[in-house]
Amino acid sequence: xxxxxxxxxxxxxxxxxxxxxxxxxxxxxxxxxxxxxxxxxxxxxxxxxxxxxxxxxxxxxxxxxxxxxxxxxxxxxxxxxxxxxxxxxxxxxxxxxxxxxxxxxxxxxxxxxxxxxxxxxxxxxxxxxxxxxxxxxxxxxxxxxxxxxxxxxxxxxxxxxxxxxxxxxxxxxxxxxxxxxxxxxxxxxxxxxxxxxxxxxxxxxxxxxxxxxxxxxxxxxxxxxxxxxxxxxxxxxxxxxxxxxxxxxxxxxxxxxxxxxxxxxxxxxxxxxxxxxxxxxxxxxxxxxx
Length: 290
Known about the structure:
This protein has 290 residues and is α/β, with parallel strands linked by helices. It has helices at 11-23, 30-38, 42-59, 64-83, 89-98, 106-119, 168-180, 194-203, 213-247, 251-289; strands at residues 130-141, 144-151, 157-162, 183-190, 208-211.
C-alpha cells in the first residue's frame, strides 16, 4: 500500500486515531487495520501514540516545567541548525535523533518551520521614523510572485510578501505598508519592471528611482551577445558571397556576385565594429564602477 502525507487530517481526527489505537493496544492486527482505514502508515500511527504518551506524561508529571524548558531549547536548536547551519531537513532530523530529542521526523520538522515562518510578521516595524534606501524586486515560487524590499545599507529584509500579481497597485500597497511601519524612502534601485516602478512612484512620488547596475549590465551583455551572433552571421554571409563569386563564369554574373560580396563585406565590417565598440565600452564601464 502506498502512503502519502495527510495534511487533511485535522487535530480532531488525529485524536480519534490515537484514542482508537490506544484502546486496542496489544490486539493482533488492529494497528494495521487502523492504519489502512485512515490511509496512514504504521510508522505515523506509532509516532502519534508516542507523542500522545509524551504529552500526557508531561501533563501529569512534576517535571512539566523542565520539559517546557527542554522543548524551548529544542526549538532554538532547530532554528539555529536551519538558519545558521543551513542544514537540510534530513540532516536536522539525523542530528536531533542522535541527541535523543523527539519528535524528530522530517514531517514534524517541516511543520515546525512552516509554523515558525507564519508566526513572523511580513513587515519589519520601527519604533520611530527611519530613512532608508530601498532595493526591491520580485522572486517566484511555483509561478507566484514574492515581493521583496530590503535596506540597501544593512541588507535587512524590510518587507516580504506572497502576492497574487506584480501590478502597480500591488506594489503601491507594498510600499505604503512600509510607510505605516515608520519607514521613509530616500529612493529605490530596481529593474525596469513596469508594475514595480509605477507602484513605487505612486507611493513615493517625491523619492528618487534609479535602475540598478545588475539588471542594467545583464541587459547590456544580452545585447552584446546578440551583436556577437550578428557578427558571426555576417561573416558567414561574406564567406558565402566569396564562394559564389569564385564560381561565377560570365562577366555579368561576375559583376553581380562582386556587388553581393561588397555588400556582404560592408555588413560584416559594420557588425564587427558594433560588437567591438560595445565590448570596449562595457569593459571600461565595468572597470569604472568597480
